[in-house]
Amino acid sequence: MKILLIPLDPRPCNTDLPKMLAAVAGHELLLPPEGCLGRYMRPARHAAVMDYLEAHAGEADRIVISADMCVHGGIEMSRGAALTDAEAGRRLDRLERTLRRWGKKTSLFSMITRGTITATKESELKLWEYTGEINGLRGRPLNAKERARHDELMAAIPARVMTDYDFARARNQRANLRIAGWAARGLADRVLFLQDDAGEHGPHIAEQKALAKASRGRADFMPGADEACSMLTAGAIVKASGLRPTINLLPSDARAMKYYALYERDPFEDAIKFHLPPLGLRAVKKGGDVDFFVNPPLKPSVDLFLYKHPARGRDTRAFAAGIKAARAAGRDAVLADCAHCNGADVYLMRDLGKAGVRALSGFAAWNTASNTLGTALAHAAMIAVGRKAGTFDEKASASLTGLRLIEDWLFQTLVRGEFSRYCLAHKVDRFDFGRAGARMDALLGRRMRTLAARLMPAGTPPFKAVFPWGRLFEARITWTKKY
Q: What's the rounded Cα separation, in Å, for the pair 380 and 358?
Protein backbone atom coordinates (compact mmCIF):
# COMPACT_ATOMS: atom_id res chain seq x y z
CA MET A 1 0.00 0.00 0.00
CA LYS A 2 1.19 3.55 -0.79
CA ILE A 3 0.40 6.52 1.44
CA LEU A 4 1.11 10.00 0.08
CA LEU A 5 1.98 12.54 2.80
CA ILE A 6 2.21 16.31 2.42
CA PRO A 7 3.92 16.99 5.77
CA LEU A 8 3.60 19.84 8.23
CA ASP A 9 7.26 20.75 7.59
CA PRO A 10 10.49 18.87 6.74
CA ARG A 11 11.60 18.14 10.32
CA PRO A 12 12.37 14.46 11.05
CA CYS A 13 9.25 14.11 13.23
CA ASN A 14 7.09 15.01 10.23
CA THR A 15 8.96 13.08 7.50
CA ASP A 16 11.32 10.38 8.82
CA LEU A 17 9.02 9.24 11.61
CA PRO A 18 5.85 8.69 9.51
CA LYS A 19 7.96 6.84 6.93
CA MET A 20 9.35 4.51 9.61
CA LEU A 21 5.88 3.93 11.06
CA ALA A 22 4.48 2.93 7.66
CA ALA A 23 7.38 0.49 7.28
CA VAL A 24 6.51 -1.18 10.61
CA ALA A 25 3.22 -2.35 9.05
CA GLY A 26 4.93 -3.17 5.73
CA HIS A 27 3.77 -0.15 3.70
CA GLU A 28 5.35 2.63 1.64
CA LEU A 29 5.18 6.38 2.26
CA LEU A 30 5.49 8.89 -0.59
CA LEU A 31 6.89 12.34 0.29
CA PRO A 32 7.62 15.44 -1.82
CA PRO A 33 11.34 16.09 -2.48
CA GLU A 34 12.93 17.59 0.63
CA GLY A 35 14.27 20.53 -1.36
CA CYS A 36 10.79 21.94 -1.96
CA LEU A 37 9.64 21.67 1.69
CA GLY A 38 11.53 24.69 3.04
CA ARG A 39 13.66 24.81 6.17
CA TYR A 40 12.86 26.39 9.54
CA MET A 41 11.88 30.01 8.77
CA ARG A 42 12.26 29.55 5.01
CA PRO A 43 8.86 28.63 3.55
CA ALA A 44 8.24 25.68 1.29
CA ARG A 45 7.91 26.24 -2.45
CA HIS A 46 4.14 26.18 -2.54
CA ALA A 47 3.72 25.55 -6.24
CA ALA A 48 6.23 22.66 -6.22
CA VAL A 49 4.49 20.99 -3.27
CA MET A 50 1.09 21.25 -4.92
CA ASP A 51 2.50 20.06 -8.26
CA TYR A 52 3.85 16.96 -6.50
CA LEU A 53 0.52 16.32 -4.78
CA GLU A 54 -1.45 16.61 -8.00
CA ALA A 55 1.03 14.49 -9.96
CA HIS A 56 1.13 11.59 -7.48
CA ALA A 57 -2.33 11.58 -5.89
CA GLY A 58 -3.60 9.05 -8.41
CA GLU A 59 -1.00 6.39 -7.51
CA ALA A 60 -1.60 6.61 -3.75
CA ASP A 61 -4.05 4.38 -1.92
CA ARG A 62 -4.53 7.03 0.78
CA ILE A 63 -3.48 10.69 1.07
CA VAL A 64 -2.61 12.75 4.15
CA ILE A 65 -2.36 16.53 3.69
CA SER A 66 -1.19 19.31 5.98
CA ALA A 67 -3.20 22.43 5.17
CA ASP A 68 -0.50 24.51 6.87
CA MET A 69 2.09 23.25 4.38
CA CYS A 70 -0.20 23.81 1.38
CA VAL A 71 -1.36 27.26 2.45
CA HIS A 72 1.46 28.76 4.54
CA GLY A 73 4.52 26.75 3.53
CA GLY A 74 4.93 25.08 6.94
CA ILE A 75 3.93 25.47 10.55
CA GLU A 76 6.46 28.19 11.39
CA MET A 77 5.25 30.36 8.52
CA SER A 78 1.66 29.94 9.70
CA ARG A 79 2.65 31.75 12.89
CA GLY A 80 3.90 34.81 10.99
CA ALA A 81 2.18 37.70 9.27
CA ALA A 82 3.87 37.55 5.85
CA LEU A 83 1.07 35.76 4.00
CA THR A 84 -1.85 37.99 3.00
CA ASP A 85 -5.48 36.92 3.21
CA ALA A 86 -5.77 37.20 -0.56
CA GLU A 87 -2.84 34.85 -1.22
CA ALA A 88 -4.06 32.43 1.44
CA GLY A 89 -7.41 32.40 -0.36
CA ARG A 90 -5.81 31.58 -3.72
CA ARG A 91 -3.87 28.70 -2.19
CA LEU A 92 -7.00 27.39 -0.51
CA ASP A 93 -8.74 27.51 -3.90
CA ARG A 94 -6.09 25.19 -5.37
CA LEU A 95 -6.29 22.84 -2.39
CA GLU A 96 -10.07 22.70 -2.71
CA ARG A 97 -9.78 21.72 -6.36
CA THR A 98 -7.49 18.86 -5.33
CA LEU A 99 -9.94 17.70 -2.69
CA ARG A 100 -12.81 17.73 -5.16
CA ARG A 101 -10.89 15.11 -7.15
CA TRP A 102 -9.15 13.07 -4.45
CA GLY A 103 -10.92 13.97 -1.21
CA LYS A 104 -12.63 10.60 -0.73
CA LYS A 105 -9.26 9.02 0.10
CA THR A 106 -7.79 12.05 1.87
CA SER A 107 -7.20 12.97 5.52
CA LEU A 108 -6.70 16.74 5.87
CA PHE A 109 -5.37 18.39 9.01
CA SER A 110 -4.87 21.99 10.10
CA MET A 111 -3.46 23.77 13.14
CA ILE A 112 -5.34 26.07 15.49
CA THR A 113 -2.80 28.79 16.27
CA ARG A 114 -0.84 28.36 19.48
CA GLY A 115 -0.63 30.89 22.28
CA THR A 116 2.97 32.00 21.71
CA ILE A 117 5.14 33.50 19.00
CA THR A 118 8.15 31.58 17.65
CA ALA A 119 11.42 32.42 19.39
CA THR A 120 14.05 32.42 16.63
CA LYS A 121 16.85 33.74 18.85
CA GLU A 122 17.77 33.85 22.51
CA SER A 123 16.65 37.44 22.90
CA GLU A 124 13.07 36.49 21.93
CA LEU A 125 12.58 33.88 24.65
CA LYS A 126 10.99 36.42 27.00
CA LEU A 127 8.59 37.51 24.25
CA TRP A 128 7.65 33.85 23.78
CA GLU A 129 6.85 33.63 27.50
CA TYR A 130 4.98 36.96 27.57
CA THR A 131 2.74 36.20 24.59
CA GLY A 132 1.84 32.86 26.12
CA GLU A 133 0.88 34.52 29.38
CA ILE A 134 -1.17 37.20 27.59
CA ASN A 135 -3.13 34.61 25.65
CA GLY A 136 -3.85 32.75 28.86
CA LEU A 137 -5.57 35.91 30.11
CA ARG A 138 -7.63 36.47 26.97
CA GLY A 139 -11.19 35.35 26.44
CA ARG A 140 -12.35 35.47 30.07
CA PRO A 141 -13.19 38.11 32.71
CA LEU A 142 -10.14 39.34 34.61
CA ASN A 143 -9.87 40.49 38.20
CA ALA A 144 -7.91 43.65 39.06
CA LYS A 145 -4.64 41.79 39.59
CA GLU A 146 -4.96 39.93 36.29
CA ARG A 147 -5.87 43.12 34.44
CA ALA A 148 -2.81 44.85 35.85
CA ARG A 149 -0.61 41.93 34.79
CA HIS A 150 -2.13 41.98 31.30
CA ASP A 151 -1.37 45.69 30.93
CA GLU A 152 2.16 45.17 32.25
CA LEU A 153 2.81 42.44 29.70
CA MET A 154 1.40 44.48 26.82
CA ALA A 155 3.67 47.36 27.75
CA ALA A 156 6.69 45.03 27.73
CA ILE A 157 6.04 43.66 24.22
CA PRO A 158 6.81 45.74 21.11
CA ALA A 159 3.49 46.71 19.51
CA ARG A 160 4.50 45.19 16.15
CA VAL A 161 4.94 41.75 17.75
CA MET A 162 1.35 41.58 18.99
CA THR A 163 -0.03 43.22 15.84
CA ASP A 164 1.61 40.58 13.65
CA TYR A 165 0.59 37.78 15.99
CA ASP A 166 -3.04 38.88 16.13
CA PHE A 167 -3.20 39.27 12.33
CA ALA A 168 -1.77 35.77 11.80
CA ARG A 169 -4.18 34.29 14.31
CA ALA A 170 -7.22 35.95 12.69
CA ARG A 171 -6.05 35.01 9.16
CA ASN A 172 -5.53 31.40 10.21
CA GLN A 173 -8.97 31.20 11.80
CA ARG A 174 -10.56 32.49 8.60
CA ALA A 175 -8.73 29.78 6.65
CA ASN A 176 -9.76 27.15 9.18
CA LEU A 177 -13.41 28.20 8.97
CA ARG A 178 -13.25 27.57 5.24
CA ILE A 179 -11.70 24.15 5.89
CA ALA A 180 -14.45 23.44 8.43
CA GLY A 181 -16.91 24.18 5.66
CA TRP A 182 -15.20 21.55 3.51
CA ALA A 183 -15.69 19.07 6.35
CA ALA A 184 -19.38 19.93 6.54
CA ARG A 185 -19.72 19.29 2.79
CA GLY A 186 -17.76 16.02 2.94
CA LEU A 187 -14.95 17.16 0.64
CA ALA A 188 -12.41 15.05 2.58
CA ASP A 189 -12.70 11.63 4.15
CA ARG A 190 -11.42 13.07 7.44
CA VAL A 191 -10.77 16.64 8.62
CA LEU A 192 -8.78 17.07 11.82
CA PHE A 193 -8.06 20.32 13.67
CA LEU A 194 -5.14 20.21 16.07
CA GLN A 195 -4.71 22.62 18.94
CA ASP A 196 -1.09 23.70 18.95
CA ASP A 197 0.45 24.61 22.34
CA ALA A 198 -2.20 26.29 24.49
CA GLY A 199 -3.46 26.31 28.06
CA GLU A 200 -6.80 25.97 29.77
CA HIS A 201 -7.82 29.54 28.84
CA GLY A 202 -7.33 31.71 25.77
CA PRO A 203 -8.74 32.68 22.37
CA HIS A 204 -8.46 29.10 21.10
CA ILE A 205 -11.51 28.11 23.15
CA ALA A 206 -13.87 30.31 21.11
CA GLU A 207 -12.06 29.39 17.88
CA GLN A 208 -12.60 25.67 18.49
CA LYS A 209 -16.30 26.23 19.18
CA ALA A 210 -16.69 28.21 15.95
CA LEU A 211 -14.92 25.52 13.94
CA ALA A 212 -17.02 22.75 15.47
CA LYS A 213 -20.18 24.66 14.53
CA ALA A 214 -18.99 25.40 10.99
CA SER A 215 -18.06 21.75 10.40
CA ARG A 216 -21.52 20.59 11.56
CA GLY A 217 -19.89 17.92 13.69
CA ARG A 218 -17.96 16.38 10.77
CA ALA A 219 -14.47 17.43 11.91
CA ASP A 220 -12.35 15.95 14.70
CA PHE A 221 -10.37 17.91 17.26
CA MET A 222 -7.39 16.98 19.42
CA PRO A 223 -4.45 18.63 21.18
CA GLY A 224 -1.00 18.54 19.60
CA ALA A 225 0.73 19.34 16.34
CA ASP A 226 3.92 17.46 15.55
CA GLU A 227 2.34 14.03 15.99
CA ALA A 228 -0.28 14.64 13.29
CA CYS A 229 1.73 13.33 10.31
CA SER A 230 2.53 10.10 12.15
CA MET A 231 -0.98 9.62 13.46
CA LEU A 232 -2.82 10.24 10.22
CA THR A 233 -0.35 8.11 8.26
CA ALA A 234 -0.95 5.27 10.72
CA GLY A 235 -4.69 5.99 10.74
CA ALA A 236 -4.82 5.79 6.94
CA ILE A 237 -3.15 2.37 7.07
CA VAL A 238 -5.56 1.18 9.77
CA LYS A 239 -8.57 2.32 7.75
CA ALA A 240 -7.35 0.72 4.53
CA SER A 241 -6.68 -2.55 6.38
CA GLY A 242 -10.29 -2.88 7.52
CA LEU A 243 -9.00 -3.95 10.95
CA ARG A 244 -9.81 -2.44 14.36
CA PRO A 245 -6.69 -2.65 16.56
CA THR A 246 -6.97 -2.42 20.35
CA ILE A 247 -4.70 -1.50 23.26
CA ASN A 248 -4.69 -2.35 26.94
CA LEU A 249 -4.28 1.05 28.61
CA LEU A 250 -1.95 0.65 31.60
CA PRO A 251 -1.12 3.86 33.54
CA SER A 252 1.59 4.16 36.17
CA ASP A 253 -0.74 6.31 38.31
CA ALA A 254 -4.51 6.16 37.65
CA ARG A 255 -5.17 9.33 39.65
CA ALA A 256 -2.78 11.36 37.49
CA MET A 257 -4.86 10.61 34.39
CA LYS A 258 -7.01 13.57 35.46
CA TYR A 259 -4.06 15.98 35.62
CA TYR A 260 -3.46 18.66 32.99
CA ALA A 261 -0.23 18.38 31.01
CA LEU A 262 1.79 21.51 30.28
CA TYR A 263 0.67 23.47 27.20
CA GLU A 264 -2.65 21.61 26.97
CA ARG A 265 -6.23 22.61 27.70
CA ASP A 266 -7.77 19.22 28.57
CA PRO A 267 -7.24 16.63 31.31
CA PHE A 268 -4.73 13.99 30.25
CA GLU A 269 -7.32 11.21 30.11
CA ASP A 270 -9.31 13.29 27.61
CA ALA A 271 -6.21 13.86 25.49
CA ILE A 272 -5.89 10.09 25.15
CA LYS A 273 -9.53 9.79 24.12
CA PHE A 274 -9.08 12.48 21.46
CA HIS A 275 -6.06 10.66 19.98
CA LEU A 276 -7.73 7.28 19.54
CA PRO A 277 -10.36 7.98 16.78
CA PRO A 278 -7.93 9.36 14.12
CA LEU A 279 -5.93 6.15 14.54
CA GLY A 280 -8.92 3.82 14.48
CA LEU A 281 -7.77 2.51 17.86
CA ARG A 282 -9.84 1.34 20.83
CA ALA A 283 -8.69 1.14 24.44
CA VAL A 284 -9.95 -1.96 26.25
CA LYS A 285 -9.62 -3.26 29.81
CA LYS A 286 -8.10 -6.58 28.80
CA GLY A 287 -7.42 -8.70 25.75
CA GLY A 288 -6.00 -5.85 23.66
CA ASP A 289 -3.53 -6.39 20.84
CA VAL A 290 -0.79 -4.29 22.46
CA ASP A 291 -0.04 -3.38 26.07
CA PHE A 292 0.13 0.43 26.12
CA PHE A 293 1.97 1.65 29.20
CA VAL A 294 1.55 5.34 29.96
CA ASN A 295 3.35 7.47 32.54
CA PRO A 296 0.89 10.41 33.04
CA PRO A 297 1.90 14.01 33.81
CA LEU A 298 3.38 14.69 37.20
CA LYS A 299 2.18 17.51 39.39
CA PRO A 300 4.07 19.72 38.93
CA SER A 301 5.32 18.79 35.48
CA VAL A 302 8.42 20.46 34.04
CA ASP A 303 9.51 21.56 30.56
CA LEU A 304 12.92 19.86 30.39
CA PHE A 305 14.05 22.13 27.55
CA LEU A 306 13.83 25.14 29.85
CA TYR A 307 14.42 23.68 33.33
CA LYS A 308 16.44 20.98 35.07
CA HIS A 309 14.85 17.62 35.78
CA PRO A 310 13.22 17.72 39.25
CA ALA A 311 13.42 15.14 42.02
CA ARG A 312 11.52 11.87 41.72
CA GLY A 313 7.79 12.53 41.48
CA ARG A 314 6.35 9.02 41.75
CA ASP A 315 7.46 5.48 42.45
CA THR A 316 7.63 3.71 39.08
CA ARG A 317 9.35 0.48 40.14
CA ALA A 318 6.21 -1.67 39.92
CA PHE A 319 5.28 0.03 36.63
CA ALA A 320 8.72 -0.77 35.17
CA ALA A 321 8.41 -4.35 36.39
CA GLY A 322 5.06 -4.61 34.59
CA ILE A 323 6.70 -3.63 31.29
CA LYS A 324 9.35 -6.31 31.71
CA ALA A 325 6.70 -8.88 32.67
CA ALA A 326 4.60 -8.08 29.60
CA ARG A 327 7.53 -8.70 27.31
CA ALA A 328 8.45 -11.90 29.16
CA ALA A 329 4.90 -13.11 28.53
CA GLY A 330 5.28 -12.50 24.80
CA ARG A 331 3.24 -9.27 24.75
CA ASP A 332 4.15 -6.12 22.80
CA ALA A 333 4.84 -3.35 25.33
CA VAL A 334 4.73 0.26 24.12
CA LEU A 335 5.59 3.10 26.54
CA ALA A 336 4.41 6.72 26.36
CA ASP A 337 6.30 8.69 29.02
CA CYS A 338 4.36 11.93 29.56
CA ALA A 339 5.54 12.75 33.09
CA HIS A 340 7.38 15.85 31.83
CA CYS A 341 7.50 17.82 28.59
CA ASN A 342 10.50 17.61 26.28
CA GLY A 343 12.02 14.44 27.63
CA ALA A 344 11.64 11.30 29.69
CA ASP A 345 11.31 10.71 33.44
CA VAL A 346 14.90 9.80 34.36
CA TYR A 347 13.74 7.87 37.41
CA LEU A 348 11.47 5.67 35.31
CA MET A 349 14.33 5.04 32.88
CA ARG A 350 16.57 4.04 35.81
CA ASP A 351 13.86 1.71 37.10
CA LEU A 352 13.63 0.12 33.67
CA GLY A 353 17.38 -0.36 33.30
CA LYS A 354 18.83 -2.02 30.22
CA ALA A 355 16.56 -5.05 30.63
CA GLY A 356 13.45 -2.84 30.64
CA VAL A 357 14.67 -0.75 27.72
CA ARG A 358 15.29 -3.95 25.77
CA ALA A 359 11.73 -5.09 26.59
CA LEU A 360 10.12 -2.11 24.88
CA SER A 361 8.33 -2.65 21.58
CA GLY A 362 7.77 1.09 21.21
CA PHE A 363 8.70 4.28 23.07
CA ALA A 364 8.11 8.02 23.01
CA ALA A 365 8.91 10.86 25.43
CA TRP A 366 9.31 14.02 23.39
CA ASN A 367 7.94 17.57 23.24
CA THR A 368 4.40 17.81 24.64
CA ALA A 369 2.33 15.05 26.20
CA SER A 370 0.19 14.89 23.05
CA ASN A 371 3.23 14.64 20.78
CA THR A 372 4.38 11.67 22.85
CA LEU A 373 0.92 10.10 22.97
CA GLY A 374 0.32 10.36 19.24
CA THR A 375 3.71 8.89 18.36
CA ALA A 376 3.46 5.96 20.76
CA LEU A 377 -0.16 5.21 19.88
CA ALA A 378 0.67 5.27 16.16
CA HIS A 379 3.48 2.77 16.74
CA ALA A 380 1.13 0.54 18.77
CA ALA A 381 -1.44 0.68 15.95
CA MET A 382 1.15 -0.29 13.32
CA ILE A 383 2.38 -3.21 15.41
CA ALA A 384 -1.19 -4.46 15.92
CA VAL A 385 -2.26 -4.07 12.29
CA GLY A 386 0.99 -5.48 10.96
CA ARG A 387 0.71 -8.57 13.12
CA LYS A 388 -2.96 -9.14 12.25
CA ALA A 389 -2.38 -8.65 8.51
CA GLY A 390 0.85 -10.65 8.39
CA THR A 391 2.87 -7.63 7.16
CA PHE A 392 4.62 -6.74 10.42
CA ASP A 393 8.30 -5.87 9.96
CA GLU A 394 10.04 -6.69 13.25
CA LYS A 395 13.34 -5.08 12.26
CA ALA A 396 11.63 -1.86 11.17
CA SER A 397 9.76 -1.71 14.48
CA ALA A 398 12.90 -2.35 16.55
CA SER A 399 14.77 0.27 14.51
CA LEU A 400 12.07 2.85 15.22
CA THR A 401 12.05 2.05 18.95
CA GLY A 402 15.81 2.37 19.11
CA LEU A 403 15.78 5.76 17.41
CA ARG A 404 13.07 7.08 19.76
CA LEU A 405 15.09 5.95 22.78
CA ILE A 406 18.19 7.68 21.45
CA GLU A 407 16.38 10.90 20.58
CA ASP A 408 13.78 11.19 23.34
CA TRP A 409 15.78 9.76 26.24
CA LEU A 410 19.45 10.32 25.46
CA PHE A 411 19.14 13.58 23.53
CA GLN A 412 16.05 15.38 24.82
CA THR A 413 16.32 14.27 28.43
CA LEU A 414 20.06 14.12 29.06
CA VAL A 415 22.17 15.76 26.38
CA ARG A 416 20.06 18.77 25.50
CA GLY A 417 20.27 20.17 29.03
CA GLU A 418 24.06 19.82 28.96
CA PHE A 419 24.20 21.59 25.61
CA SER A 420 21.88 24.33 26.83
CA ARG A 421 24.33 25.13 29.60
CA TYR A 422 27.22 24.95 27.11
CA CYS A 423 25.49 27.42 24.79
CA LEU A 424 24.81 29.90 27.58
CA ALA A 425 28.41 29.65 28.83
CA HIS A 426 29.96 30.01 25.36
CA LYS A 427 27.53 32.60 23.98
CA VAL A 428 26.05 30.29 21.34
CA ASP A 429 22.43 31.19 20.57
CA ARG A 430 20.32 28.10 21.38
CA PHE A 431 17.75 29.13 18.75
CA ASP A 432 20.23 29.88 15.95
CA PHE A 433 23.75 28.41 16.07
CA GLY A 434 24.92 30.47 13.11
CA ARG A 435 28.60 29.78 12.39
CA ALA A 436 28.81 27.44 15.39
CA GLY A 437 26.63 24.85 13.64
CA ALA A 438 29.41 22.49 12.54
CA ARG A 439 31.02 22.61 15.98
CA MET A 440 27.70 21.84 17.68
CA ASP A 441 27.07 18.86 15.36
CA ALA A 442 30.52 17.45 16.15
CA LEU A 443 30.02 17.87 19.91
CA LEU A 444 26.60 16.27 19.70
CA GLY A 445 27.84 13.21 17.83
CA ARG A 446 30.61 12.53 20.32
CA ARG A 447 28.45 12.98 23.40
CA MET A 448 25.58 10.89 22.04
CA ARG A 449 27.87 7.98 21.16
CA THR A 450 29.38 8.04 24.64
CA LEU A 451 25.97 7.92 26.34
CA ALA A 452 24.64 5.26 24.00
CA ALA A 453 27.57 2.98 24.79
CA ARG A 454 26.77 3.32 28.49
CA LEU A 455 22.95 3.27 28.54
CA MET A 456 21.62 1.55 25.41
CA PRO A 457 21.34 -2.26 25.20
CA ALA A 458 24.18 -4.24 23.63
CA GLY A 459 23.85 -4.57 19.89
CA THR A 460 22.55 -1.04 19.28
CA PRO A 461 23.91 -0.08 15.82
CA PRO A 462 26.10 2.99 15.25
CA PHE A 463 24.24 6.18 14.41
CA LYS A 464 24.70 9.77 13.33
CA ALA A 465 23.27 12.70 15.30
CA VAL A 466 23.02 16.28 13.96
CA PHE A 467 20.97 19.42 14.53
CA PRO A 468 18.86 19.62 11.33
CA TRP A 469 17.67 23.19 11.81
CA GLY A 470 20.83 24.63 13.37
CA ARG A 471 19.15 25.10 16.73
CA LEU A 472 19.10 23.17 20.00
CA PHE A 473 15.48 22.10 20.05
CA GLU A 474 15.59 18.98 17.86
CA ALA A 475 18.10 16.42 16.60
CA ARG A 476 18.05 14.11 13.59
CA ILE A 477 19.18 10.60 14.48
CA THR A 478 19.92 8.16 11.65
CA TRP A 479 21.46 4.71 11.69
CA THR A 480 24.79 4.39 9.90
CA LYS A 481 24.39 0.61 9.93
CA LYS A 482 21.15 -1.34 9.54
CA TYR A 483 19.40 -2.34 12.74
A: 16
